[in-house]
């Protein structure tokens, strides 16, 4: 079971880009928006993501991140072209000291990770840490969800909630720092290797989360599921969570638990196939916080479960029946 608390613990910064570039995490980092423009998000809702024009767009934090021995970077990304002429930095954090950077870059339809601070060697452009988006279908309307989970000795890359690759090269977020920036390289012109801002990204970004710990695969999948359906509720900021287990279910029987009590006059649980057709399921309450779902009559496959409370969707999650 992965609860909402497990996807907010260690959250260093959170940028939902819901009409602005404010950090909605507890640290409240300040940002400066430079030529990046609000655009439609993965649900085609206007003004809920930022577009970077590939020429001079970026969003810069005004203060530095702390040292991080482990970390997770999660975001939604919609490329605008293949970025074949020049590397575009989705995320950059590092000063002008040569080879002391933390970054996520996009070039020729590939995403590269880098964490070579403090003598570490991880550099996707040189050794390990790359994923090819041309081999992966977008999750929603041309958008991909990407997550990089870094431990000191290895890193894991996930796309659309699914594990894609491991880099068995040591990485580090400990060392020299400068203002974290989305959309370009930015080392503050600091010596000895500092340059002006460059390597601008062409594409859109949304729902960026930086964690000071290595999330589990289950937590990464929970973030993907919670943000791949337009529920109208921000699960990262909501105190409400809803757990489903086991998922997948071999026999079509699931348990659920919520941290809020249910009033069955206003709550309902429904299951739909991937064509949007509601399927038959029996829902029974075991306590005022938990219950069971039985959809044993359904064929093996992927389904969408929606939980509605007081007219609002509090959970919309993919569930699977079968191995």
Question: If you had to describe this structure to a student in words, what would you say it looks like?
Answer:
By secondary structure, this protein is mainly beta. The chain folds into two domains: 4-227, Jelly Rolls (Sandwich), CATH 2.60.120; 242-321, Immunoglobulin-like, CATH 2.60.40. The chain contains one helix and 23 strands. Strand 9 (110-115) and strand 10 form a beta hairpin. The chain is elongated. Mean pLDDT is 86; it is low at 1-6 and 231-239.
Name the features.
23 strands; 1 helix; elongated; mainly beta; single chain; Immunoglobulin-like; Jelly Rolls; 8-stranded antiparallel beta sheet; 3% helix; 323 residues; disordered N terminus
């Amino acid at each position: 079971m992965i609860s909402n608390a497990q996807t907010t613990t260690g959250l260093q910064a959170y940028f939902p880009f819901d009409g602005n570039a404010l950090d909605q995490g507890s640290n409240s980092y300040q940002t400066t928006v430079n030529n990046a423009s609000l655009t439609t998000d993965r649900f085609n809702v206007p003004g809920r993501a930022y577009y970077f024009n590939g020429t001079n767009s970026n969003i810069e934090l005004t203060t530095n991140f702390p040292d991080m021995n482990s970390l997770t970077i999660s975001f939604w990304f919609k490329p605008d072209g293949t970025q074949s002429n020049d590397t575009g930095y989705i995320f950059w954090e590092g000063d002008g000291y040569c080879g002391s950077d933390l970054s996520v870059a996009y070039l020729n339809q590939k995403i590269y990770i880098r964490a070579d601070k403090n003598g570490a060697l991880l550099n996707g452009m040189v050794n390990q840490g790359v994923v090819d988006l041309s081999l992966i279908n977008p999750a929603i309307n041309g958008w991909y969800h990407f997550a990089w989970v870094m431990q000191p000795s290895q890193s894991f890359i996930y796309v659309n909630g699914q594990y894609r690759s491991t880099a068995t090269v040591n990485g580090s977020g400990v060392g020299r720092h400068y203002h974290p920036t989305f959309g370009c390289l930015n080392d503050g012109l600091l010596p000895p290797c500092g340059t002006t801002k460059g390597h601008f990204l062409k594409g859109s970004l949304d729902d960026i989360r930086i964690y000071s710990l290595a999330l589990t695969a289950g937590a990464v999948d929970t973030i993907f599921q919670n943000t791949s359906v337009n529920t109208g509720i921000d699960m990262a900021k909501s105190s409400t969570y809803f757990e489903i287990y086991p998922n997948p279910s071999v026999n079509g029987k699931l348990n659920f638990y919520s941290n809020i009590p249910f009033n069955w006059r206003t709550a309902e649980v429904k299951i739909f196939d991937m064509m949007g057709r509601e399927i038959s399921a029996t829902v029974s309450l075991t306590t005022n916080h938990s219950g069971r779902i039985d959809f044993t009559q359904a064929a093996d496959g992927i389904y969408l479960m929606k939980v509605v409370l007081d007219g609002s969707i509090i959970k919309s999650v993919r569930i699977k029946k079968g191995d």
